[in-house]
Design brief:
309 residues; six-stranded mixed β-sheet; four-stranded antiparallel β-sheet; binds adenosine-5'-triphosphate; AAA+_ATPase; ATP-binding
Length: 309
């Protein structure tokens, strides 16, 4: 039988009187990136802290690679790497010193430490900064060091709690690229409260709200389920409503003015590209195309409405 990399069974936790998370279950049995999405206070950090053995759950079980985390924490933790929301960095150490220290507490054999540090610095793009104090690294590079400590022992499961928080747009793109690369070799759980983050890098998504799982499926199913995409187009010579409705993939046309139209499309992500080509071929004089984004609050409202129906 195939072993799950991680299995969470009916996990519940309360810090005080109210449940912070309630009856969360899921499993992962292959490499790739799973997005854990939820607004602030939804219960993501609680779930991740329990999953990584930092917090003891009130109820339920966590198995890492088949090992019960509560019963054999040391064995289970060897198989996972964790980057918490506040990266556990020692700012007074250089990158190399810090990762050497992490390797030693991760039970890497002394003869292997040098190699492991070298390899992880290469993987995370840190080699150039090996002698720099962590204190003097930019936010993006500090986060790379945080990710490096989470993967130095080559765990099967890597848990990253809001790893792109507080980074500037360029740093976000670079850290995302690194996470994608890690996801090719390991199971990665990535938490965020930003919808576009999961859409950009995750194949699967679990959405938590008010401590409960409200959605669990592939990213594609999520996109199709929660929101037909909309785009706003400006055309100096737009076709009529009928011609737009006949365009493959478009299922709603709303003229906001003579030249400004909101188009809704369901599943096909190529619609905007095909529309641009058609606009050129058919002389619609397209001057602007803006894809409209749905906020997490709206997604949650849509999910709640659909589940009530
Ligand atoms: N140490 C604590 N003591 C009491 N309540 C807590 C504690 N930590 C979290 N909570 C509460 O548990 C709930 C879930 O919080 P959690 O931090 O897991 O959410 P989150 O989705 O990670 O949010 P954020 O993105 O803001 O970190 C919230 O209502 C929060 O106020």
């Amino acid at each position: 039988m195939k072993q799950n990399i991680v299995k969470i069974e009916n996990l519940s936790h309360r810090y005080t009187r109210d449940w912070a998370i309630r009856d969360i279950s899921f499993e992962i049995d292959k490499v790739g990136i799973l997005g854990l999405l939820g607004s602030n206070g939804a219960g993501k950090s609680t779930t991740m802290n329990i999953l990584c053995g930092v917090l003891n759950q009130t109820e339920g079980n966590v198995y890492i690679d088949g090992i019960n985390l509560r019963e054999k924490p040391e064995e289970a933790k060897k198989r996972l790497g964790f980057l918490p929301q506040n990266a556990p960095l020692h700012l007074e150490l250089t990158v190399e010193e810090y990762l050497t220290y992490c390797a030693s507490i991760r039970d890497i054999a002394p003869s292997q430490v040098k190699n492991a540090v070298k390899e992880v610095m290469e993987k995370c793009g840190l080699t150039h900064f090996s002698n720099r104090l962590l204190r003097n690294l930019s936010g993006g590079y500090r986060q790379r060091a945080g990710i490096a400590q989470a993967i130095i022992h080559k765990p099967k499961l890597v848990v990253l709690d809001e790893p792109t928080n507080g980074l500037d747009p360029n740093q976000i793109l670079e850290v995302r690229k690194l996470i994608r690369e890690i996801g090719e070799e390991r199971a990665v759980i990535f938490s965020t409260h930003i919808l576009s983050e999961v859409q950009a890098i995750c194949k699967d998504i679990k959405m938590i709200e008010s401590g409960q799982m409200v959605f669990a499926d592939t990213m594609e199913a999520f996109n199709n389920y929660v929101m037909p995409d909309t785009m706003l187009v400006m055309m100096d010579n737009p076709p009529g409503e009928e011609e737009l409705m006949a365009f493959p993939g478009i299922n709603r046309v709303e003229f906001l003015s003579d030249r400004s139209i909101r188009l809704q499309f369901a599943t096909d992500k190529d619609v905007p590209k095909r529309l641009i080509t058609a606009a050129v071929q058919r002389g619609w004089e397209l001057t602007e195309l803006i894809q409209e984004r749905t906020s997490l609050d709206e997604v949650f409202a849509q999910l709640s409405n659909k589940s009530k129906r």
